[in-house]
Amino acid sequence: MDSLGDPASTSDMHTDYTVGQDNIEGRLGPIGFDIHNRVFVVSALASVVFIILTLLFPERAGAVFQAIVGFATGTLDWYFMVVVDFFILFCIALVLLPYGSVRLGGPDARPDYGYLSWFAMLFSAGIGIGLLFFGVLEPVYHANVSLPLGIPSPFGADGELDPAAIPEATALGLAGTYLHWGIHGWAVYVVMALALAIFTYNKGLPFSIRSAFFPILGERVWGWWGHVIDILAVFSTLFGLATSLGLGAQQANAGMNFVFGLEVSATAQVIIILLVTAVALVSVWRGLEGGVKKLSEFNMIMAVLFFFFVLLAGPTLVALSGFWTGLVTYVTEFVPLSAPFGREDDAYRQDWTIFYWAWWVSWAPFVGMFIARVSRGRTVREFVICVLLIPSLFIFIWMGVFGSVALDQLYAAPEISLVKEYVIDSYRPELSLFGMLNELPLTALMSTVGIVLALIFFVTSSDSGSLVIDTITAGGKIDAPRPQRMFWATVEGLIAIVLLLGGGLAALQAGVTATAIPFSIVMLLMCYSIVKALNGELRHRRPGKA
């Protein structure tokens, strides 16, 4: 069986289906192709139609996007919060129950990558542009505008700064940021990645999202039920990536304006997306080892150096103290911040939290498949704990330091703070990072580094996403012809462009929420399949093996 899994492992799920049996292979001139005859065609045609219609009718598209965002955040807010809270409880159960001892790939499997390379790939694929775009923006905004759990703003009704309100606002502003980037989101990724890993490595099924539904659908999973699941996964991935790419283009354009005076415009952002997509095509051509892995490791080194500059050049003790205070508050206020009902902080919960939960769900096929591909050989317990905690802790440190430095600048001199101007007064979120860097030494140099980091995150996200989408649309094959991956990298860039032209940030949010609504249901069903699969592994595990 042409699969990442081992069909000779302890599998209690038998099928005659072979990877690629429904594929069409051939050549168009010099270009070879190996595609699933329905998933690829429907996904590709629908993507092209969406791109064309949005370009032809941008105003109507913008109105539709706004309506989708309003429905998701205003009507389905409780649903998204309940779903993501459930994923956390599910992950905790996996760690505490005997399921945790099951090894991905069978009892004798060992990890394909060391911890450093594994964490680097998790870091670049699962975090991406968000660290740079939101690292300053969210702590400042939540502490002064959106006010999680109804805390009072340090800037009172008269606009005067109240020093007594600063400690609580800072702590809850950081805790509110940690909520959006911590274990809630990574629990979403765990569910997706674990389902793919179990059914591929342990059950010998194709490396495709539909495989996780074999316990529910049986052989029907290789028919139209499975096609629909995979097509939903393709669109969820495309729009989740497009949101990140659009935000990255906005931030890179803003940074270039800040440092070099380049005009901030839709045209400039389109050019940035096109140029970076071209670089991503080269990385896609080189593959996982030559492209994604090397870029991820380089990106992690650059990001760590950038982080230490901000930590050491800024008020170091204030930054570290802020990180810790925010972390303690996050832990103590975890339940109130996670509660779906009885809330009065609508601006924070609906405008921010619900968008994030939809964004994490929409990214789940992409990041989940990528995490699964690099996690063979880990036990379920090791996998869940590491994927939940290691990236979350890194994010907490990053955002705690960046947010604390920015908040210290804001409260020390609000009358001249660029952070206040960009986040609170005029709300230009793409400039928030550069507003903070303006108060540190080597502003121009470090702002340029920030731009480069954003662009590399852009490349690694597009690169990783293209590999994942190509795997889905190639019927689970991981060695399909490279031009197919390049096609999907191009489509991702084009969707990011049309969403920016069709309504900016609201359009990006709409693309995410529209795909996250149905796909969240798919992920809930996955939890049942995971339990069925793990029960089978425990029944058939050889004595003495862990």
TrEMBL record:
Keyword DNA-binding among record annotations: no
Xref: PANTHER family: HIGH-AFFINITY CHOLINE TRANSPORT PROTEIN, HIGH-AFFINITY CHOLINE TRANSPORT PROTEIN-RELATED
Domain of life: Bacteria
InterPro entries hit by this protein: BCCT_CS (IPR018093), BCCT_transptr (IPR000060)
Bilayer topology annotation: Multi-pass membrane protein
Name of the featured protein: BCCT family transporter
Entry's family note: Belongs to the BCCT transporter (TC 2.A.15) family.
Pfam family, one: BCCT
Cellular localisation: Cell membrane
Keyword tags: Cell membrane, Membrane, Transmembrane, Transmembrane helix, Transport
Segments crossing the lipid bilayer: 39-58, 78-101, 113-137, 183-201, 222-246, 266-288, 300-324, 354-372, 384-407, 440-459, 487-510, 516-535
Species this protein is from: Billgrantia zhangzhouensis
Principal subcellular localization: membrane
